Amino acid sequence: MKWKCAALALLASASANADECGTVTIADMNWNSASVIANIDRFILEHGFNCDAELIPGDTMPTATSMIEKGQPDIAPELWTNSVKEAIEKGVEEGRLAYAGEALLEGGEEGFWVPEYLVKQYPELKTIEGVKKHAKLFKHPEDPSLSAFYGCPAGWGCQISGGNLFTALGLKDAGFELVDSGSGAGLSGSIAKAYEREEGWFGYYWAPTAILGKYKMVKVDFGSGVDPEEFLNCTTQIDCAEPKPTMFPKSPVSTVVATSFSSKHPAVMEYLSKRGFMNGDMNTLLAWMEDEQANSEEAMYHFLESHPEIWKTWVPADAAEKIAAEL
Q1: CA atoms of 92 and 161, how far apart (whole Å)
Q2: What's phi and psi for 155, nearest 5 deg?
Q3: Which of 169, 173, 184, 249 has the fewest CB atoms inside 10 Å of its own CB, making it the most exposed?
Q4: How far apart are CA 267 and CA 147, in angstroms?
Q5: Where do runs of H (alpha helix) occur along 154-209?
Q6: H-helix segments, 71-203
Q7: What burial class does residue 314 get, using C-beta atoms within 10 Å of its C-beta: 0-12 exposed, 13-18 middle, 19+ buried?
Q8: d(CA 87, CA 69)
Q9: How does pLDDT run across 188-214, given as a tens digit for each residue?
Q10: Cα distances (Å, whole numbers) of residue 276 to 41, 123, 273, 281
Q11: Up-side HSE of residue 167: CA atoms within 13 Å toward CB?
Q12: Which of 160, 170, 166, 171 is closest to 233 using CA atoms?
C-alpha cells in the first residue's frame, strides 16, 4: 500500500509541474539556425521543465505581429529584431512582449572576408590597407588584369551597403571591380571554389552560416570602427552621395517572448536568458547539417549529444539530468 501511495504522490508531483508549465508554443522559423534553436528549446522545455512544448511554423514579420496582437506563439527563439524594430519596441512598450535573451550572443555578423590560408601567408590581409596592397592576389574571374570583390546579389539589402563601402574604401582605385555573384548560391559557390584551389577570394559574407563553418575566413578590419549613424543614414541608403568607411554594426538576434507567458514562467525565462550561441558554434552546426543533409531535429540531437558542456550551463542540475537521461 505504501508503494502505491508513494507512486501516486510522484505522479501528482509530476502532474503539478507539468500543469505549472502547461502548453508552450514555439515559433519554428523558416531558416536553419532559427529552426535548430526552436527544436533545442522544444526538447529542453519538454524534458527538463515538464512543458508540453509545440513547434508552430513562423517567419519574422508574421510571428512578431501575431505575438503582439494575439500573444501567440509564446516564444520566438531567433528574431533578427532590426528588421521589425518598430513593431517589437512598440510591443515591449505596451507590455505585450519581453526580451528573454540573445539567441546569437555576438549578433548577426556581416563583413568583408578573406580566406584564413591567405592571412597565414600575408598577415597584413587582416586589414583593408593590406588587402589593397595585395590586390593582385584576388584575380577577377573574367579579367586577370583586374582584382575581384564579390558583392551581394542584386536585390539584396546588403547590395547597397556593400556597394557603398566598396566606394568608401577606395577599392576601385586599388584595382578592384565589384562582381555581382548572381545569387546566394553563386556567392557561397565562389568561396568554395577558391578554397578548393587555395586561390584568393575577397568579398561580402555574413554569419552564422554553413559556409563560414566549413571554410575558415578572416573578417577584414577597415580601421574605422563602427559608426552606427553613418551606417544607418548613408551606408544603407541607395542615394548615399559620399559614403565613409564604417564596419558593419552587429545585428541584434534576440529571443522574444509574449508577456502573457513570461509573467507566469520565471524558470523558463531564466533558461531562455542563458541560452545563446556563439557564431562559431552555430557556423559549425550549420556546416554539419549541410554535410549530413540533416534536418533541424537531427541537428538538435547532434548538438545536445555532442555539446553537453554548452547546454548544461543553461539549465539547473536536475533539469540537465532529466534531459541527459532522455537523450
Answers
A1: 29
A2: 95, -15
A3: 173
A4: 55
A5: 157-168, 184-197
A6: 85-93, 116-121, 128-133, 157-168, 184-197
A7: buried
A8: 11
A9: 999 999 999 999 999 999 999 999 999
A10: 11, 32, 8, 10
A11: 15
A12: 160
Determine the Cα–Cα distance for residues 203 and 298; give it in Å rounded to an integer.
32
One-letter amino acid identity for 23?
Answer: T
Asked if 256 and 97 touch (Cβ cutoff 8 Å), the reply is: yes
Say whether the peptide bond before residue 57 is cis (omega within 30 degrees of 0). Answer: no
- Would you call 258 helix, strand, or coil by DSSP? strand
Residue type, 114: V
Q: How do residues 64-98 score in pLDDT, each as one tens digit?
A: 999 999 999 999 999 988 778 888 999 999 999 99
Q: Give, in order, the Cα–Cα distances in Å from 305 to each of 7, 296, 321.
A: 31, 14, 13
Residue 296 burial (CB count, 10 A): 20
| Sequence-ordered strand ranges (E) for the chain | 23-29, 52-58, 75-80, 97-102, 109-115, 147-151, 176-180, 203-207, 217-219, 253-258
Looking only at the bridges linking them, the beta strands covering 253-258 and 97-102 are antiparallel
CA angle (284, 285, 287) in 5-degree steps: 65
Complete DSSP assignment for 200-225: ---EEEEES-HHHHHS-EEEPB-SS-
pLDDT tens digits for 9-39?
A: 443 333 334 447 899 999 999 889 999 999 9
CA 18 to the chain's CA centroid: 31
- Here the cell at position 236 is 544603407
Question: Which amino acid, residue 35?
Answer: S
Q: Model-level pTM?
A: 0.80
Say which amino acid occupies 84. Answer: V
